[in-house]
Amino acid sequence: MDQVTALEQLLATALRRIAELEAALASMAQENADLRRQLAKNSSNSSKPPSSDGLKKPVPRSLRGKSGKKSGGQVGHRGDTLRQTATPDFVERHEAEACGTCQHGLTAGMIKAVERRQVYDIPVPRLEVTEHQAAIYCCGHCRATTTATFPDGVNAHVQYGKRIRAAAVYCNVQQLIPEDRVCQLLRDLFGATSLCAASVTNWVNGTARTLGGVVEHILAQLNEGGVRHLDETGLRVDGKLHWLHSISDLAFTHYRISAKRGAVPSFLTGGTIVHDHWKSYYAHMSGVDAHALCGAHHLRELKAIEEIEKEPWACAMSVLLNSANQLKCAAQGRGETELPTSVHHGILTKYMAILTEGLAFHERQDPLARRTGARGRKARRPGHNLLVRLRDYRDDVLRFLTDFTVPFTNNQAERDLRMMKLRMKISGTFRTLEGAQVFADIRSVISTVRKHGGNILETLTLSPQQIIARL
To answer: Which PANTHER family is this protein grouped with (predicted)?
Structure first.
């Protein structure tokens, strides 16, 4: 009897051990799958930037379909080239002294024609010095002294003018050249030998203060409704992670720095906002009329589900979303403002059928192993999470079909953020929050003026009232 009891205890211990090992194996298998999923992600199937792909050339699997057009310039494309002008600034006459055949001397009376060639070039750059003289009067009536007023901005005995200040700000903020190299550039180009990095910094700060009213005008325009694109990206300020929030449309751009990613522009009201489903946009922006979700993000996620998870429904959904966007673009090209009801109903029916198929697929799968100590909602596979999101936010996913003013993607916001990320790659960080916001304010104006077709360098020499009048 003692031997049977001992064997039963041994068996129970072995069974417990087997259960523990199976649980550990399932946990490690899940962890291994998660790590493999991370390794398989790149810029084409996730939100990772292209710079994270490394030097290995990926297999070309572009989400953009073939257009059927030949490479190069298209028929009807307007080309640009240099053309001779009838009013050149300078004319240099070149004459021959002897005949190229018999070496006989040549005179001006023998010239029968002139061959013209023109060279476009820039003049030798140099600083121009303008002396301002304010006349000092002695009144013939009361003998009091009166001095004429100098123009605005002429405050010192010797100073740099607004055009070279604008050039320095342009190089630093628009072309992202660091202050020391801006000084070197202006010394080499214009002979500004007394310029230092501190001067460039002061000019940038002064420009931001001057443009404060323009930034407020831009924000007011963006708050008037319509379709606005929102996005955010991380950047380093004083060694800490901060967030750059952007609001933009086809005509205006506004940048704002915040220590929190969730500090979204909750003050916006009316209209539609396009974003990438960051939950804070839903939680804190109740004043807007509607949300629209970025289709490009969905296509990248679907590509990852198709390539990594091998789930068949993902390919069908990608094809449907791309086809729906093409139908909308074709309708817009014909001048239509909405899809026919039958076409829209057909897309919606296919959309729901694919979701039903995908959800049924996941319901048949074994549940994921729960990690030790994990709490909260039971974990779901990435494809299952995406399906639930596409189901619960169906109207926002398909907003581009029901409202033709809403684009399929949030590419506008991503384009507006791209140069800001390039600034981080070049200089790495901002020393202070104030400096970061100065940069953001000037870039808000630069991006807006660029969208209006304005000249940035000229704009930086104008008053705020003149800039606003051009927007």
So the answer is: BLL1576 PROTEIN
